[in-house]
Amino acid sequence: MRTSWADSVSNSAAENVTAAATNNGPASSASSRPSRSSYVPPHLRNRPPSAEPLAPTPKENLASTNRSAYPGPPPSQPRWGSREPARPGSGPSRGGWGNRTGGWDRGREREVNPFENDEPAEEAFGEQENTGINFDAYEDIPVETSGDNVPPPVNTFAEIDLGDALNENIRRCKYVKPTPVQRHAIPISLGGRDLMACAQTGSGKTAAFCFPIISGIMKGQYAQRPRGARTVYPLALILSPTRELSCQIHDEAKKFSYQTGVRVVVAYGGAPINQQLRELERGVDILVATPGRLVDLLERARVSLQMVKYLALDEADRMLDMGFEPQIRKIVEQMDMPPRGMRQTMLFSATFPKEIQRLASDFLSNYIFLAVGRVGSSTDLIVQRVEYVLESDKRSHLMDLLHAQRANGTHGKQALTLVFVETKKGADSLEHWLCMNGFPATTIHGDRSQQEREQALRSFKSGTTPILVATDVAARGLDIPHVAHVVNFDLPNDIDDYVHRIGRTGRAGKMGLATAFFNDNNASLARSLSELMQEANQEVPSWLARYAARSSYGGGGGRNRRTGGGRFGGRDFRRDGPSRGGSDYYGGGGGGNSSGMGGGYGPSSGYGGGGYGSGVTSAWD
DNA sequence: TAGACCT
Description:
The chain is an alpha/beta fold.
C-alpha cells in the first residue's frame, strides 16, 4: 500500500529492479545487459513491473526506431483525428478507463497510467484539491494580446476541437474550464501562430502549450519520419532551464497525452544517458529536455530536430539570458531544426524583459504577444515583507522567523519554508547550521547529485524536511504545493528573479508570505523592489523608500530597470515607440474591462485608445 | 557574480 509519494517511489524502484532480475526475456538479452545503476530517474519510476523495459533485441530495436512512435494507420490519412477508441462493453461512467483496446497497445508495451499516483502525500496536508488550481480565482484576470489577427479566446474546452482522447485526459485532470492563459494561448497555437506569452507558472501554462502540440501531432499528417540508424526525430521540442522543471513538464505532458498515441520522452543531465537513449529509441513525438543534455544528444546524432514542428521554451527569458543563450541558439539556429516560419514557436515566462523579447523575436515569425495577469493579485495572495538585516544577523533572524512560524503553525508542524540563498556553498552551510539548531532542513543546488536534488525535493514536499535551502535552481517554474513562506535570505540581483522566487508561494489561490533580508549589499535592488511592492500594494518600509530614492539617480539599478515601465514585462516590446498615452487596462481601478480583453481580432485590437501607459502594472499584478 | 545548463 502506498503511504506517501516518497514511499511509492522507493517501493516501485525496488520492484522494478526485482522485476528486471526475475522477468527477463531472451537469455541473451538478459545476460548482455549492462549492469544497471541503482538510480531510477523520476520519469521512469512507478512503472509496473511489466512495463520495465528490458534491453530491446536488435530486431525490436530496428522496428521501434523506424516506426518511431507510430503504430497507427498509415499516414495517408489523419492517424487519430477524432477517432473514437473502440470501447467494447465499456459503460458510460468511466468512459473506457483502463481500456487497452483503444488502438494503444498494438505491438507496444502498456502505457503506464499517469493518473494513478496522483495526489501524492496530499493527506498530510488535509487538502482535497487535485489540480492545484482554483478556477474560481481565474475569473477576473486582465489579459492583453497584440499582434496581427489575434484569434479570439475560448471560454470552454468544448469550444476547441482537441479530440476525444485529449478531452478525456482533460477530464481526468479535473480541469473544468480553461484558465485565462489557456483560453487565449490555445486558440492562438491551434491557429498555427507563433506566440510569446507572459504568464505565471501555476496558471496552467504547461497545458497551454501541451494541448495544441498534442492535438496538432494527433491531427497532423506528417510524412514518415526518416529512418536514421539510431537517430530519432521528435515532432515537438520543449526546453526548460532546469532538470526538475523538465521532469515536471514531462509528468504533466504524459497525463495530457495518455492514450493518445503521442509519446513524450524527457532528457536531462545528471541521470544515466543510456536509459534516456532507450526511451528515445522506443519512439518520441514530444521531447522535453534541458539544453545541455539535448546538445549532447544532437552531437551524438541520436536526436535530429529536422522534423520539429513545434518548439516551446518554458521560462523563455531565462533560456535567452546570458548563460543559456548560446546553447539555445545552437539548438534552434545551428543544428537541423526547421527555421522560424517552418515550425511553430511558443515562448512562455512569467517575466519578459524587453531586451530578452528582442532576442526572442529572432526565433519567432509574425508572433502574437500575450500577457495574462496573475491569479488573484500579489496583494491578495502574497504578503511581501522586507526587513533590514545585516549579513552577520541573517542566521539568527531566520531562526526567529522559523521559531515564530512553528509556534503559529498548525499541529505544531513546521510550515514549508523555502529559503533562497545566493551561492551553492552558502546553501550547504545554512542547511548544516539549521540542522544543527534543530530545524530539519535540506538543500537543492547544482553541486548536488541529481539523486540528492530529487531526494531533497521529495523530502521537502512531504514535510519530512519542511525547510528547503535553495539556489535559483528552484526559483522558476517548480510547482511545490503548500509552500507557506519564501525567505529571500540573500536577495537576488535581478528583480525578475525575485518575482519568480516569491512565486513559489501563494500558489493556486492560497495565501503566501515572502520575507526578504535586505542590507547595503542589495542597494542596487532597492528601487525596483520598492516599485514592485508599491505596485502590488505592499507596505514599503520608509527606509527602503530612502534607499530607492538614493539609487534613483544612479542609473535606476541597471539591469533591474530593464523591464521598463511595465514591471513584469507584461507588455509587447514591439509596442514601445514614441510615447504612448492613454489609459491602461490594468490600472484605472475600474476592473470592468478585465475579462474580455484580447477578444478583438484586428491588428492592435485590445489596445483601446492608447495602449499601455508607462507605469502600467503588469501581467503579473 | 553566481547560478543554471551535456560528460
